[in-house]
Amino acid sequence: MSLSVFNALFAAAGFTLLVVLLRKRTHRLPLPPGPQGYPLIGNALDIPAKYPWLTYFEWSKTFGDVIHISALGQSIIILNSAEAISDLLERKSSIYSDRPLPIMAGELVGYKDSPIMFQNGPRHREFRRLFSEVLSARKVKEWRPVQEPKVGSLLKGLAGSPIEFHEHIRLFVASLIFELSHGHIVQDEDDPLLKMAKQVDNDYSELVIPGNFLVDVFPFLRYVPEWTGVKFKRKAAQFRQTITEAVDWPYQQVKDQIATGTALPSFTQNLIENTENLTKENEKLFKWAAMVFFTAGADTSVSALSSFILAMALHPEKQRKAQEEIDRLVGTERRPTFEDRSQLPYVESIIKEVYRWNPVGPIAVPHKLSSDTTDEYRQWRIPKGSVVIANSWAVMHNEEIYPSPFEFSPERYLGRDPSGNQVNPDPRKFAFGYGRRVCPGQALADDTVYIAVVSILTLFNVGPLKSEDAPKYTPYLISHPEAFECDITPRTRVS
């Protein structure tokens, strides 16, 4: 044997030994700290079904920013800091971009076929590619001529019946999203697709809260027959019927319109007409991608705009400051446009604070560590297949990052350090997901919120509340203020 071959074999053996030793070392490391569980079931009974972000935040005061809990042997890692989220979900996105597949949502309801639940791999990359073709920051600019007339309808609604501002906001967002996703023109609140989308959002928000359904904690319950009438089986049947209709019906409507030559330009129409040899697998992906477009996009933007209305009703001094900025820039002869955005720093700061103050997604949709990888972080062991939950609410209410975090303070984004960097970070980096799972519709959602916010500030005074106490926020994955009433009156200016 030549010396060079011997050296190569020796090096390979040495590398193999090093890998084995490192793996053994990793498996000897302790788990991150966390609340003590019970034998066999672990922390299954400790996982909160409502407002989980608040419980996780309280735990962090005792256990730190990285917490381990378990449920029937399933490890769950909760990340309560920007540093931990970035270290794992961003810098190690290649191994932290899978999705857990809850029994209730995935198997019993059918979300296993949804791109939201795809594991990291070719199908997920194809889904991201489809969305990038229409929702990249560059492409979204092409949708702006559609957005501006829609916001005009919102303003007319607010002027005519301001007490129904919730309905006007939902109709504005839905009419925009449905036209872009399916070429569907929403006429009013009774539109059947609008009602269906709202129900899907409500169902999904309830489905993905860890521990919300006992079958996710005790998987053997999936075998309980439906005829027994147990509550989770009844709910699963209802949710499954709604999601099946939401996936199939709007897609088939576009196909029928293409066949008759009446289809309007849309995301779905583009997918169908630009795909040769449309296969069943193609159609399955297209149906789900289009459904995700209109359901995910609609409720999140509605929630953000509802929070904006509430914030303005509670903080008239912030509202006046933004209105003065708008008036100085555009006068009284026109409304602001997208081109004005860079010259409205205080309005931009209000939008940022809306995202931070009561975030639409207080916790990110859970990630999962690859099932064949055990990771090491800060001398802790992260077991393979761990469910990883990023507590965005905790980050955006960390007083070291955002001083006085429970105050609504747009001014926090206007300060600069000696190097010219913004003192408080832009909360959008925490509001739209992380790593390879960041929301593909972020640019469109942000555009939609901006044009509505700046238009409402230009033409109306919002507030005060008609109740003594501010409304609570709903306790699920997509969180928004519960119903409230406030005055919305026209400003004395020429539109």
Q: How many beta-strand runs?
A: 8
Q: How many helix segments?
A: 18
Q: Could you estimate the helical fraction of the residues in percent?
A: 40-55%
Spans where pLDDT lies below 50 across 5 or more residues: 15-22
CATH architecture: Orthogonal Bundle
Q: What is the terminal separation in angstroms?
A: 88 Å
Describe the structure.
The chain has about 500 residues and is of the alpha+beta class. The protein has a single domain, classed as Orthogonal Bundle (Cytochrome p450). Helix content is about 50%, strand content about 5%. It contains 18 helices and 8 strands. The protein has helices at about 5-30, 50-65, 80-90, 105-110, 120-135, 135-140, 145-160, 165-180, 190-205, 215, 230-260, 265-275, 280-315, 315-330, 345-355, 390-395, 430, 440-460; strands at about 65-70, 75-80, 365-370, 375, 380, 385-390, 460-465, 485-490. Strand 1 (about 65-70) and strand 2 (about 75-80) form a beta hairpin. Helix 8 (about 165-180) packs antiparallel against helix 13 (about 280-315) and helix 9 (about 190-205) runs antiparallel to helix 11 (about 230-260). The protein is globular and about 70 Å long. The N and C termini lie far apart (about 90 Å).
